[in-house]
Amino acid sequence: MIEATLCFPLRDDDSEGAATDGDTLREVLLIEKRRGLGEGWYNGPGGKCEPGEGPRKCAIRETREEVGLEVRDLEKAGELRFLLDGEDHTFCHVYRTRSFGGEPTSSDEAHPEWVPVDEVPYDQMWEDDRLWLPGVLEGRSVTAELRFEGGEPLDEAAFVDSDLEWGVSFDGARGQ
Ligand SMILES: Nc1ncnc2c1[nH]c(=O)n2[C@H]1C[C@H](O)[C@@H](COP(=O)(O)OP(=O)(O)OP(=O)(O)O)O1
């Protein structure tokens, strides 16, 4: 099974024009994927773990490689198990963070964009994301089994059903 990661940097944009009436606009950094699995769709920065690499290190490396952001203090927010035609395909660790340095910049893999959390373009993302990402962006934790059918590649298969559990604890080794 492939082990992969996703990382969702969050910030409050209270600059003039972004917020009105004292409200703060909460934003998430998404990427428009320029190549590979999910090309053309929005997602968080992330990707496959290298051999021997822990998922937290992978999320930090992939975010640096894809958008040039140095993310820190990652909080584990989810574990997603993607099945294709009844078989395990990818196990994805999901993180969020409010701590990072640098400015997001485009690479040949990804184009970054700060997006208000209530304007996430779910119609231009993996179909399952609308089930779990809103809760993750609200600060909740989730485990999910997400089932696809129709053969490789995964991003051309049909999303068929899911089981989600919220309020999961990622304390201890599972928090890695
Ligand atoms: N269903 C769904 N929703 C949201 N995100 C994903 C899925 N399925 C997925 O596989 N993913 C995520 C998990 C990973 O972050 C990427 C896929 O990794 P990929 O881009 O292939 O990995 P890279 O390491 O960037 O690719 P290479 O550079 O190694 O080719 O999608």
UniProtKB/TrEMBL annotation:
Q: What class of enzyme is it?
A: hydrolase
Provide a GO CC annotation, any one: cytoplasm
**Region forming the signal peptide:** none
Query: One Pfam family this chain carries?
Result: NUDIX
Which Enzyme Commission numbers does its entry carry?
3.6.1.56
Ranges for domain Nudix hydrolase come to 1-138
Please provide, alphabetically and separated by semicolons, the GO molecular function terms listed in this UniProt record: 8-oxo-7,8-dihydroguanosine triphosphate pyrophosphatase activity; dATP diphosphatase activity; metal ion binding
Which InterPro entries does UniProt cross-reference here? 8ODP (IPR003563), NUDIX_hydrolase-like_dom_sf (IPR015797), NUDIX_hydrolase_CS (IPR020084), NUDIX_hydrolase_dom (IPR000086)
Listed A to Z, the keywords are: Hydrolase, Magnesium, Metal-binding
State its cofactor: Mg(2+)
Q: Its Gene Ontology biological processes?
A: DNA protection
What reaction gets catalysed by this protein? 8-oxo-dGTP + H2O = 8-oxo-dGMP + diphosphate + H(+); 2-oxo-ATP + H2O = 2-oxo-AMP + diphosphate + H(+); 8-oxo-dATP + H2O = 8-oxo-dAMP + diphosphate + H(+); N(6)-methyl-dATP + H2O = N(6)-methyl-dAMP + diphosphate + H(+)
Q: What does the annotation say about its assembly with partners?
A: Monomer.
What is the role of the protein in this entry?
Oxidized purine nucleoside triphosphate hydrolase which is a prominent sanitizer of the oxidized nucleotide pool. Catalyzes the hydrolysis of 2-oxo-dATP (2-hydroxy-dATP) into 2-oxo-dAMP. Also has a significant hydrolase activity toward 2-oxo-ATP, 8-oxo-dGTP and 8-oxo-dATP. Through the hydrolysis of oxidized purine nucleoside triphosphates, prevents their incorporation into DNA and the subsequent transversions A:T to C:G and G:C to T:A. Also catalyzes the hydrolysis of methylated purine nucleoside triphosphate preventing their integration into DNA.
Family per record: Belongs to the Nudix hydrolase family.
The name of this protein is Oxidized purine nucleoside triphosphate hydrolase
Organism annotation: Natrinema halophilum
